[in-house]
Amino acid sequence: MTKIECILRPGKLENVKEAVNDFGIHGITVTQVIGCGLQKGRTEVYRGTEYNINLLPKIKMEMVIPDKDVEAILKLVTKAARTGEIGDGKIFTYKIDNVVRIRTGEMGEIAI
């Protein structure tokens, strides 16, 4: 099993969620986060004062999937989230040893 963690533009969440659901992955966790990378923030003016905002709003989407689906999901998420601009985000993958469904006690891939 593999955990896929995606840092995305907030406006791309629905595109990615729909693509992942259409693939058959229904267990996802979504969190609103802030961060910075190559995008380096932006400058805004509020009541005549200039402010440098270097932590930008992003979405973190997490899912655990069978190893056989990893490459397909990576391509799918990349295609759905890409704008071609700096700040499109990143995808991280982690190996998962085990998972337990608390309600039933099922373990392994059957629990995801």
Q: Please, could you describe this protein's structure?
A:
This protein has a single domain, classed as Alpha-Beta Plaits (2-Layer Sandwich). The chain contains two helices and six strands. The chain has helices at residues 13-23, 70-81, and strands at residues 2-8, 29-35, 42-46, 49-53, 56-65, 89-95. The protein has a four-stranded antiparallel sheet, with helices on one face. The chain has a two-stranded antiparallel ribbon with strand order 3-4. A hairpin with a 2-residue loop joins β3 (42-46) and β4 (49-53). The N and C termini lie close together (9 Å). 15% of the residues are buried.
Ends apart, CA distance between termini: 9 Å
Helix-strand pattern: EHEEEEHE
Strand content bin: 35-45%
Domain module count: 1
| CATH topology title | Alpha-Beta Plaits
CATH class: Alpha Beta
Q: What labels describe this entry?
A:
alpha+beta, Alpha-Beta Plaits, 4-stranded antiparallel β-sheet, 112 residues
Please render the helix and strand layout as text:
Blueprint lengths: L1 E7 L4 H11 L5 E7 L6 E5 L2 E5 L2 E10 L4 H12 L7 E7 L17
Antiparallel strand pairs: 1-5, 1-6, 2-5, 3-4
Helix pairs in contact: 1-2
Describe the structure concisely.
This protein is of the alpha+beta class and about 110 residues long. The protein has helices spanning about 15-25, 70-80, and strands spanning about 1-10, 30-35, 40-45, 50-55, 55-65, 90-95. It contains two helices and six strands.
